[in-house]
Amino acid sequence: MIKLINYEMKKHFYKRSLIIALLIFSIINVMKISSIYQNNSLISNSDSSKWCDVYWQLYDEYKGQITHEKIQKLLSVYRPIEKQTADLTASRRMDNPDTYTGNVYSDYYLLTWYYIQPMEYAYMYQSTADDIVKRALENMIFFRDLGNKYKLNQNKIIAKLFSDRSITDFSYTEMYQNYLKYDFSSLLVLLICMYGLVSVFVVEKESDMDMLLLTTEAGGKKTIVAKLSASTLFISFICLWFWLLDFIAFGLVFHSFEAASSPIYALKSFENASVSLTLGQYSFLSALIKTAGTLVIGLTFLLISLKSKNALIPFIWNIILISILVILKETLSGSEHILLKVINPFILVENNELFSKVEFINFFGIPILSYLAASGFAALSGAILTLIIHKAAKKNVIAGRR
After folding, report:
1. What keyword terms does UniProt attach to this protein (predicted)?
2. Suppose 277 and one of 1, 148, 282, 399 were both cysteines; which one would form an S-S bond, judging by CB atoms 3.0 to 4.6 Å apart?
């Protein structure tokens, strides 16, 4: 079987055109990440101001554990600048020697956006989380008295999820802020997977080799299992390649791999995160979830092309499928139709919404967090698609084998 899988890999995926496409898409991906840094980062090296140099000079003083001394030191620098800019009458000269960046307003915004607001958010987060736990405990009492077991268990999960949450360290998180919401590579992965998978079943039907294969020892069901295994390996490799490329490129472009040990809720956009993981752990989990969603969509690609004798037809249908999944995901984003959201495998591929807030699915009276429900549904869908493809294969009746 291993030899057969390797044969299918060589036949369908060790192709020059596919390798060229992979390299071109990788270059496009890195260029896109670079453009995000240039356009979104206020401390970009391309910025004509001195923000980049000043930020990293100050960062050495304030990074690490948040202490009362660091806060007081930061405020002693910030308060006079805030006072100067309060009435908008401060000097607007761009070469002021008494400032960090050459301009007092530039100093004010640099300190506000990159130090005061992030440190204040981190310092106050424990209080915010404690308030959520307090309300959840109050709701538990309320719904227990009403006899509403579902809402009782829902608030029990929330109370447990937000208990003991705190942000003790200040770190540079701009890289993760952009990296974790980056979805462009997901589209590239789907396109290259579609290009590679569309010919897995079609190539033999175009030349009527599929009937001839039934007369061989390894024909029929064995060939299907080998094709499914090879396709799974191919999808997994493409995902691994791009997810690693994303992480490495973002770290290099943003000049930092820091904050990996910070909790995910250190990012404002994940204030109400449905998991309590570090940013490094979440990055790994997100990559696994993306891969799972891509595998389900890839199996759908295979199913669509299973009976086709022309590669163009399944290619068109697969493009339509991707478009529908993307449109549905965007249409339902932020809505209360949680069940409709989680049954779409594309929500695993672009999974920010699953993890950035706490949502539940009512599974026969049991509250299930949306990311768990989406993962479970994807696993079930993948198993069903695999079974359908396997059952649809013709038996090797001539050789007396499956």
Report:
1. Membrane, Transmembrane, Transmembrane helix
2. 282
